[in-house]
UniProtKB/TrEMBL annotation:
Region (Interaction with tRNA): 144-146, 300-301
The entry's keywords: ATP-binding, Cytoplasm, Disulfide bond, Nucleotide-binding, RNA-binding, Transferase, tRNA processing, tRNA-binding
Family: Belongs to the MnmA/TRMU family.
Name by which UniProt lists this protein: tRNA-specific 2-thiouridylase MnmA
SUPFAM superfamilies per UniProt: Adenine nucleotide alpha hydrolases-like (SSF52402)
Domain tRNA-specific 2-thiouridylase MnmA-like C-terminal: 276-348
EC code: 2.8.1.13
Name of the gene this protein is made from: mnmA
Main EC class the enzyme belongs to: transferase
Lineage start: Bacteria, Bacillati, Bacillota, Clostridia, Eubacteriales
Active site (catalytic residues): C98, C194
Alphabetical GO biological process terms: tRNA wobble position uridine thiolation
Domain tRNA-specific 2-thiouridylase MnmA-like central: 204-267
Residues that, per the record, bind ATP: G8, L9, S10, G11, G12, V13, D14, S15, M34, G122
Species this chain originates from: Sulfobacillus harzensis
Catalytic activity: S-sulfanyl-L-cysteinyl-[protein] + uridine(34) in tRNA + AH2 + ATP = 2-thiouridine(34) in tRNA + L-cysteinyl-[protein] + A + AMP + diphosphate + H(+)
Amino acid sequence: MGKTVVVGLSGGVDSSAAAALLLEEGYDVVGVTMRHLPAETTNSCCGLEAIVDARRVAKKLGIPHHLVDVEQPFFERVIVPFEEAYLNGLTPNPCALCNRYIKFGAMWDWAKSQGADFLATGHYVRVEEENGQFLLKRALDHKKDQSYLMYTLGQEDLRHLKFPLGGLTKAESRTIAESRGLVTAHKPDSQELCFVPKNDYQGYLREHRPEAEVPGDVVDTSGQVLGRHQGIAFYTVGQRRGLGLAGAEPRYVVGIDRGRNQVIVGSRAEVESLACQVEAVNYVAGGVPDLPLAGQAKVRYNMEPAPARWIPDGDQAEVRFDDPQWAISPGQVAVLYQEDVLVAGGKIRPTSR
């Protein structure tokens, strides 16, 4: 075949299985691990153990392995926006930024510098070409699908990307790794943000951004003061615990007013919304549609897409759902599917209540 593919080896089972499959398909495979955090990091997904496991997989497969330092761009492109979003009362999605700027940005830049034809990862997503256009599709195993976090990709990206696991289940990927004697075959999945220990983002902010602790009022949707909060950075839409409010009826965070330094609470029904506004919209096929698009949208990673209309307006759009959706959070991502094809996505922006 004579085509070189660089595979991002994270030290986990998925990237290991992807490398094995591509090697057996006849590609010249090169493994690379992006070191995006300090060497002393202990999180399972990105510490020294992960690097060692990636090297062991590469050695077992008989492919070269490289370690590339991306700590500074990761800090600037992922960590700082994550912190700033919370300070501004938003709920960020750092994995989407990491995909755009690190996994499919910096890693592809490095791959090109090495003369590679393709870049591959162990993500569960599919790319298919139809009539000269590249379609980004949900994985066949919808429970593992990761397309939601890839809405920033375009035609030039998809042209050189390969996702060997898009048609497989997690169990099948483990079987592939096990049958080839790879050390990562039974390694557990990481369930935490790589730079936030134990997913404790509040503790992370207190340590790294102490200016987040600016107390203010907790108010209801009519503006009545009900209590005090510790800082808007520590609250997200839909949150119920930690509000410190008494009363017979449960209250939830329904909004955050950065200008007034207020956390707004309301009933469960008030957390639900029929629509949201999105910005920095990307259309995977390129261009901006002239008319509204019908399809299924999602506003959180762990939800099934729900019937909706996507109404474009340049690099912004409005998403209107058929039925109310729970806790649409500014700062998160909204995407639109038509069947299994990811059509568009953008960042949810704050709206006045």
